[in-house]
Amino acid sequence: MDHPTGHHHGCCQGGHNGEHSSRRGFLKLATLGAGVTLMAPLTMSRPALAGSVDTLLLSCMDYRLMGHVADYMNARNMQANYDHVILAGASLGALTDKKPAWGEAFWDHVAVAKDLHHIKRVIVMDHRDCGAYKVFLGMDLSPDPAKEAEVHGQYLTRLKAMVKERHPDLEVELLLMGLDGQVEKVAA
Fold first, then answer.
1. What Å distances lie between residue 53 and 21, 66, 171, CA to CA?
2. Which fold has domain 55-185?
3. Residues 124 and 154 sit within 8 Å (Cβ to Cβ)
4. How far apart are CA 175 and CA 156, in angstroms?
5. Residue 128, by phi and psi: left (phi above 0), alpha (psi -120 to 50) or beta?
6. Model confidence over 167-181: pLDDT tens digits?
7. What is the largest CA-CA distance in the chain?
8. Domain residue ranges in the chain
9. In whole angstroms, what separates CA 116 from the centre of its chain?
């Protein structure tokens, strides 16, 4: 039967009940969601405790390789278990006279990582087609992969020698990454 307002009486009651029950259901879900969010830090895997990281990684800032760098470190079972210093040019960035503060920052990071996290190794990862080599050295090495590997090898080897001189207890690993994420070890 029609209500004087033109609505069915049963429809109005059902509509209000539906609104209340759906609002109540939403509140229950929202509360449950908040609880899950609050519990997430307790249930998700956490990074290693300070003091247990054994590696400091120096890599370039090139946005094209960030995912590849993380994938490489993850494949070595080091996910969220290394200190990461990023300088344009990686080894070149730590060595260039054009940005002496960068080298100072790198050495400061190595010292802090040793003191705070007791690192045992430094990994230096340069990459091919590096814009820092163009900017700081005026060299586009990418057309000649052999020459590119040779020049990167010179900077990587120089930085390794300096790390070993300042911190003889640290291992140093030298790597050269391609734009496809493939990594070559560089002998020094």
1. 51, 20, 14
2. Beta-carbonic Anhydrase; Chain A (3.40.1050)
3. no
4. 8
5. beta
6. 999 999 999 999 999
7. 95
8. 1-44, 55-185
9. 19
